[in-house]
# Entry
Amino acid sequence: MRPIAACGAAVFFYSSLVLAGDRVAELIARGQFSEALPALEAARDAATAAGRQDREVAAVLNNLGSVYDQLGRLRDAESMFQRSLALRRDLAESESQESASTLDNLGAVYLKLGLYAKARETLERAAAFEKDDLHAARVWINLAMVDQAEHRWPEAEEMLRKALDVRERELGPANRDVAVVLNDLGVLLQSRKRPAEAEPLLERALSIWQAALGEMHPWVAAGFHNLGVLFMQLGRTQEAEKRLSKALDIAAAVLPMNHPNLTAYMTSYAHLLRETGRKGEAKRLEASAARSREAYRRENFLGYTVDAREIRQ
# Structure
């Protein structure tokens, strides 16, 4: 079982969503990424057909990449972020705040793909262009995730605590983006066998997300799952099952069937089922998780040799 880090959470340019229709910003804010996707793809295609090469199009490409990222379509996300950055370069905006945010999004995708050196390089480029600590905090969070992947635990914790201080000061203690750092710091402490410190952070993150986002949101599912994993490790099986089941129910409703988070939730719940003697249920859930995991790996070319001509543009 593994807890789920929210990382820095994808950056969207809400002021530049007019090309994709008025409702897209609202759908994104609610975590309804599948519903937002068609409008963003249509906006991209219309801009391409019209030969548009401007800031609005760069923003649409970034937003489309962020939606692909949230849906687990990492290679598609990578392509959109790279196109957005190329357009910013053509517009002489390579060092703008918007370019920094897109670089940060791209670095987070490389992190999820396991390309840690590339992720660190991209995130450090983003950090160099950030204009203030509040914008830089998201880069720090993603750099902390790279540190964790490379087992640099003290550096990761220091980076997350720095980001938490900035976000609490600038956004207030009950902001949804503060909860992202609380969650990720809780996940780190949990992985370092510090459950007494992790639990209140994870509880607080979930509470903030529920209040800010409602129940049916991917981050809320992650919050329930992470608490469930913690309680399972502490031997609090009934509390763990309640939260793991809730996470799975939410994720099944709001995430694509092959999304890696949904797969992780199925795997965690199957582990609990085995530990409590329900091996038949566990086996069925493990089989579903294995199918989803394989489909996701194929979707994102993880562990496969791929002809570059086959990669979707």
In short: The chain has one domain: 14-310. Residues 14-310 form a domain with the Serine Threonine Protein Phosphatase 5, Tetratricopeptide repeat fold (CATH 1.25.40.10). The mean pLDDT is 89.
